Structure formats: C-alpha cells, structure tokens
Amino acid sequence: MQPKRPENVILVGFMGSGKTAIGKLASRLLGFQFLDTDQLIVDRAGRQITDIFATDGEPAFRKLETNVLESLSHINRCIISTGGGAVLLESNREILRSLGFVVLLNASEETLYERISRNTKRPLLQTENPRATLSKLLAERSEAYASAADFTLDTTNLSHNAAAESLEAAARTAFAWTRKA
User: Fold this and answer.
1) The whole model's pTM is what?
2) Confidence (pLDDT) at 172
3) E-only strand ranges, the chain
4) What angle do the packed helices 90-99 and 58-70 form, to 10 degrees?
C-alpha cells in the first residue's frame, strides 16, 4: 500500500492556462494556502525570471525550479501553481506527484495566445514569431503535461470563478472529502 499523498493541489499547464488566477480563487474556496513556484524562485534568487533566463539561461532556471519543488515536500493543504515548464523533467513530474493531487489546466491554443500575447514577462515567447513558438512549445510539452496529471480541467470557456469551483470539486473528490454544506 502506497503512503497517502499530502492534501495539496498542484497546478500544471501552459502559461496562460489560469494556474495563478484560478489557483488563488480555489485556495480561498478550499481554505488552502496558495504558493506560486515562479514567485518562490524570484524570491530565492533575488531576480526576475526574465533576468535569470537572460543571464544564466534556461538550464539554470530549471535547476532553481527543481530545487524549489523539492523544498515543498513538507507542506500540506496548499495549492501550488507551477511554471509552465515544470513538467519537462521526469524527476520533476515525480516530485509533483509526490506533493499531492496534480491538476492540468488546459486551454485551446487560440485562447492561450489571446491570454499571453500582451505579456512581456514570458521569456520563452520573446521571439520573432510568438504564435509559432507557442504552437511548438505546446506540441513539445503536451505528453509531459498529460503524464503528470491526475485530473485535467479545460479552462477555455470557463470564467476564473467557474474554473475555481470545478477545481474545488475535483480536489474534494480526490481527497475523499464530503461536500461542504
């Protein structure tokens, strides 16, 4: 018999899928703390992610990301929003699964592009053709996202509130909690 996983909800998915916004709302519904691994990296490194990518490169950022994920092994009753590439390493996917209930937030490519196209703090999309880059990254990451997830929630046509309520219901089922009155 496997040991019981902590009662955490780990959000994975591409940038713009709603991990932070939906995670914050769902954390209030569940009475959980909200943690954002990208923010934890910024806090620990003392620099913005765009600076880490520009100065040290993506491999250095991914190492920081793994270190942050490993540091969360003691927590319980948190919603953890991860960076879009956190699932790229199999070792990270194993860490994520050990942390709790892993939920993939998905959205259509068109919706993702609409959501992220105006944000200049997305280092992987600072390319000549961000739309083509988005399409390429989605194709490269889809299998890793799917293999990490216990549950998938498509946020394409959901408001943040509706998605948070769906996430809350999925977590209550995963943790075998009865529905609140």
Assistant:
1) 0.92
2) 93
3) 9-12, 33-36, 78-81, 101-106, 151-154
4) 30
